[in-house]
Amino acid sequence: MSGTLLAVERLNLAFVSAGQRVPVINNLTFSVAPGESLAVVGRSGSGKSTLLNLLCGLQTPDDGVIAIDNESFGNASDAVSIARWAELRRQLIGVVFQQANLMPALSLVDNVRLRTHLAGRHKQDERWWLQRLGVGDQADRYPDRVSGGQAQRAALAMVFAMSPSLILADEPTGSLDRHTADEVAESLFNVQVETGCALVLATHDSELAACCGRVLDLSAAG
Length: 222
Ligand SMILES: Nc1ncnc2c1ncn2[C@@H]1O[C@H](COP(=O)(O)OP(=O)(O)OP(=O)(O)O)[C@@H](O)[C@H]1O
Ligand SMILES: [Mg+2]
What we know:
The protein contains seven helices and nine strands; from the N terminus they run E-E-E-H-E-E-H-E-H-H-H-E-H-E-H-E. The chain is of the alpha/beta class. Strand 4 and strand 5 form a beta hairpin. The longest helix has 18 residues. The model has no long low-confidence stretch (mean pLDDT about 95). The structure holds adenosine-5'-triphosphate and magnesium ion. GO terms for molecular function: ATP binding; ATP hydrolysis activity; transmembrane transporter activity.
């Protein structure tokens, strides 16, 4: 594949705090090609999580354009735009957070099954994905019976199993100890390269950022 999967043009967002307008995303322009990995770095409060929220439509910019797979979104927050973003999150964009977002009432394999079902991918081998992420032996356990690292591997299995074009990961190893974080990150990068999906990874961790193809520093942007 070639071309651009994600194009961000002159994106701006300010929050209002105590009556003051606080700019967070300032005239940001960048793009991500299919299969590419981009680390978003910057000091705490520089807008990494805000940017990821904008990239999956959970927040609306003040102005600027986000184009995903050649479909453009501006600052409209009407029902049609919100529904379209929801459809993209269901089918095309996998989101991973610092803490694994698993349904407590479902086993790990049923969590993966839920995600593939939502994405309309009914022929996925959910156990295979858990195995690929290194937690195949935990497939029938419930989230409160596995470690943080195992839960995060299951969360990664969930997003990879939906065959996304783009994964947005916000500090996905931030709650893990160094050794576990390194192992989970290695799985993330291996499977990302193998599947050819693009990755935008927000992180404080310079070692993790160095594993990405490119780095966008929000402290320096704007
Ligand atoms: N809903 C909101 N309303 C007002 N201000 C907000 C809101 N969300 C974020 N902010 C502010 O926007 C700035 C950027 O926050 P954000 O969470 O994106 O930073 P971050 O780079 O992810 O930080 P960290 O590294 O600590 O996770 C911060 O100053 C934060 O206080
Ligand atoms: Mg953050």
